[in-house]
């Protein structure tokens, strides 16, 4: 599905590093591999503010800001004040930084020399669970997914239904 969407977006391509990896897949490992394949580029890792708050629970979390700058999108009503408090709790030596993009509400340079940026964006309440449940109950998913995905869903209806029903069954057990 993602390949279908990206075909229509110039300059975008699907990275299959995590799919090709055997065993656990950690963000830090993916960033190391991407850094090796793009040695002259600074990576940007986009995450929600709720993930930033639990970053210390991630495998080798301290290395992530060495390998990429962090772009934080607010979730669940998070504000720039929440963001700033979280940054200082994770990196007490963080230094406020002026950032040229006016959409960025706050920016810090970290002790790792990486940057962490807060970029408020409108929250779209669209999730894979919502799309699956609507599709399986016969409701339209127009405007929730691109038209190319709707085409794929229609063309592969029996397979999609069996896979998504199995996923819903597993989710119900959790």
Key phrases:
single chain; 174 residues; alpha/beta; 5-stranded mixed beta sheet; 9 helices; 5 strands
**Average predicted local confidence, pLDDT:** 89
Largest beta-sheet characterization: 5 strands, mixed
Q: Which class of secondary structure composition applies to the elements?
A: alpha/beta
| Low-confidence residue ranges | none
Large-scale geometry:
globular
Distance between the termini: 26 Å
Mind telling me the C-alpha Rg?
19 Å
User: Strand fraction band?
Assistant: 5-15%
Structure description:
This protein has 174 residues and is an alpha/beta fold. It is built from 9 helices and 5 strands. It has helices at 2-6, 17-20, 27-37, 49-53, 61-67, 80-90, 128-136, 147-155, 157-173, and strands at residues 43-48, 68-73, 95-96, 106-109, 115-118. A hairpin with a 5-residue loop joins β4 and β5 (115-118). α3 packs parallel to α5 and α7 packs across α9. The two termini are 26 Å apart. 12% of the residues are buried.
Summarize the structure.
By secondary structure, the chain is of the alpha/beta class. 45% of the residues lie in helices and 13% in strands. It has a five-stranded mixed beta sheet.
Write the layout of secondary structure elements.
Elements: H1 2-6, H2 17-20, H3 27-37, E1 43-48, H4 49-53, H5 61-67, E2 68-73, H6 80-90, E3 95-96, E4 106-109, E5 115-118, H7 128-136, H8 147-155, H9 157-173
Parallel strand pairs: 1-2, 2-5
Antiparallel strand pairs: 3-4, 4-5
């Amino acid at each position: 599905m993602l390949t279908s969407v990206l075909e229509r977006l110039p300059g975008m391509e699907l990275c299959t590093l995590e799919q090709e990896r055997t065993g656990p897949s950690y963000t830090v490992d993916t960033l190391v591999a991407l850094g090796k394949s793009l040695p002259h580029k600074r990576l940007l890792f986009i995450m929600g503010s709720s993930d930033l708050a639990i970053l210390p629970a991630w495998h080798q979390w301290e290395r992530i800001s060495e390998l990429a700058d962090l772009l934080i999108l607010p979730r669940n009503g998070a504000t720039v004040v929440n963001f700033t408090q979280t940054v200082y709790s994770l990196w007490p030596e963080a230094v406020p930084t002026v950032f040229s993009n006016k959409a960025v509400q706050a920016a810090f340079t970290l002790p790792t020399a990486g940057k962490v940026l807060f970029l408020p964006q409108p929250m779209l309440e669209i999730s894979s669970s919502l799309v699956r449940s609507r599709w399986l109950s016969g409701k339209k998913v127009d405007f929730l997914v691109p038209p190319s995905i709707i085409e794929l869903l229609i063309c592969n209806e029996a397979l999609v239904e069996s896979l998504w029903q199995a996923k819903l069954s597993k989710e119900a057990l959790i």
